[in-house]
Request: fold
Amino acid sequence: MTFGKLFRRMRSETGLGIKRLAPELGVSYSYLSKLENNELNPSEEFVERAAKYFKADRNHMLLSAGKIPTEVMKILQEHPEDAVELLRAKFGRKK
Reply:
């Protein structure tokens, strides 16, 4: 699921309109509209704020935005072969 779709779903579940939510997240309502329509990709900082606001899983939101959580990226960089092997073993994909 894309970040925009996930964000829209979370916002809709709270019953908040984008014009009311935007100032609470420190952005314009047009920015939120563009996010929800997948016209923009959010910054990691915005994803963090949104996850905190909605009490949502930060990692899930970061991944939906195409961003790898910092601690996961560090593992991938420090142990690339092991990480790839583990993921392939877990999810059944071969080279």
